[in-house]
Amino acid sequence: MIEIGSHHERLPMASPAQPIVYVVDDDDGVLGSLRFLLETDGFSVRTFRNATALLNATSPPGADCYVIDYKMPDINGIELAGRLRQSDDDTPVILITGYPDGNISARAAAAGVKDVILKPLLDESLAKCIRRAIQDRRGD
After folding, report:
1. Which of 31, 41, 51, 139 lies at a C-alpha separation of 20 to 30 Å from 6?
2. pTM for the structure as a whole
3. Which residues contact 95 (CB under 8 A, 6 or more apart)?
4. Is the pLDDT of residue 133 over 70?
5. Interacting residues of 126 by C-beta distance below 8 A, sequence separation 6+
6. Sign of the dihedral through C-alpha 15, 21, 25, 28
7. Among 131, 91, 120, which Cα is nearest to 27's?
């Protein structure tokens, strides 16, 4: 069995017109649901079960957007966003969470997160948010 995010994994390249979204969440059910939702909406999706898997991925194709869960066992989503900003300062990051608190939006913004979306409300609003973030990055 190949672990999602494994460094041995080889992925097909997405077509240029198909934006690539990296989804990081420790819940396999959420990963599967988001993959289905986003692929149905025309995105190419690569999933990772935790932040470490994403950070250790070897030569991945460039993401057009990251969708990251806030609460994960290894590195939380805000810390991961901060680490991504160190090497990739313009790819949009969208944080998803089922654990909102009063300070999460401010902390996320300080780490360079574009938007915070609450679970379980991850429907077409997430796809719209991703498209808007990618368009803003490209200057469309």
Report:
1. 41
2. 0.83
3. 68, 69, 70, 77, 78, 81, 104, 108, 113, 115, 116, 117
4. yes
5. 34, 37, 38, 67, 94, 96, 117
6. negative
7. 120
